[in-house]
Amino acid sequence: MKRLIVVALSLAALVAVVLVLPGLLAERRSAVAEPPATSSLTSASPRTTAPASTRGAASVLSDSFGFVWAPQQGSLGVTVRPETGQSGFELPTQAWRFSACSCAVSPDGTRVAYWSGSTAGAIELRVVEVARPGLGNAIYRPPTEQRGTALAWSSDGSGIVFSLEGWPNPGDPVGFVSNTSLLVIEATGGTARRLATGGGVYVPLGWDRAAGIAAAGLSGEGGYTTGYIAVRTNGDPAPLLLGMPEGMGSVQVSSDQRIGFSLFSSDQGPTLRWWRLAEPGAMVTGPRLGQTAGQPTWRPLSSQIAWVENGTLQLLDVERGAITSGGAFPTGTPIAFRVDGSAAAAASGPSYVLLDIASGQSAALASSGYIIGSVRFTGAPSNP
Q1: How far apart are CA 127 and CA 140, in angstroms?
Q2: What are the phi and psi torsion angles at 20 (to 5°)?
Q3: Measured distance between the N- and C-terminal CA atoms of the chain, rounded to whole angstroms
Q4: Do the beta carbons of residue 336 and residue 67 sit within 8 Å?
Q5: What's the pLDDT at 87?
Q6: pTM over 0.70
Q7: Residue 228 in contact with residue 242, Cβ under 8 Å?
Q8: Which of 191, 210, 185, 215 is nearest to 36 (CA)?
Q9: Residue 135 contacts by C-beta under 8 Å, 6 or more apart in sequence?
Q10: Backbone angles phi, psi at 78, to 5 degrees
């Protein structure tokens, strides 16, 4: 039986899809030397014990951090705005299939990569600095017979894994795709290197550059899963096609790109499972979530999977197997974390609430659609 998955563009991109198209695939869907292995982002869990605090709710919001907002409907493009709602800028991104934005935020939150243009020969993969949006650069232009689709950053923020597909021809069935491929490129530009081609639509999930492994979902007409591949980005380039159990829902990858998780449905209820990027066969089965639980997501810079259940933010540390509480939240809502993991946003009626996890203080966010990514305006280098 075919399985339908939802794949996130970045850590918070999945939140956007859950709000708009639950249960649908979010992203329907050269030789470059591999650098020496670098250490992964820390997997230590941020502190969750709330100290005494007298701060007012307004102090929760910060100009140093912000979110990428997609419009609820209508116009294309996204808005990048600080949490306080002051200033910000827009990016002319393009919608792709079931996604509102063919874009992804770097692991440290300082850059956004996105596809711009909508006609053959005018498509560009661009990277923009959040703190200096006027200095964006085009790092890749696909062949005129192909267009850019989904993308994801590498674990160290130095590279991007992306997918291409052919332009539809007059008379093609709705959703028909051809001439697909999966590639990687340095975030500064250069020659793109093809990892896989043909066989369906590639939906990049992540690139663990320290381990030299890139992973992608493989989808077909209608957005149904036909496979999961892991490709070595150094050494043997042959893709490894891997099977996944039935009932898979959304797929998300941790900020260090080492571990993926999904929520699997069954008659007994939704169950969390996680695995190393190239080892879905060694999948670990976690807790069963209640029917009121919101869609889970990774907490950045940690090994914690987070979700809201019965009005409480739940934090499951997959390294230690422990679940802790992160504070009160609107029940069952999808969540999006601040890029450093210190706060989380959730929809509350027509607006969003931002919860500072350490203090327990919260404040209303000025929303302009729905959140699809989190960014950092100051205080971090270009590469983590």
Answers
A1: 10
A2: -105, -50
A3: 41
A4: yes
A5: 85
A6: yes
A7: yes
A8: 210
A9: 128, 129
A10: -130, 160
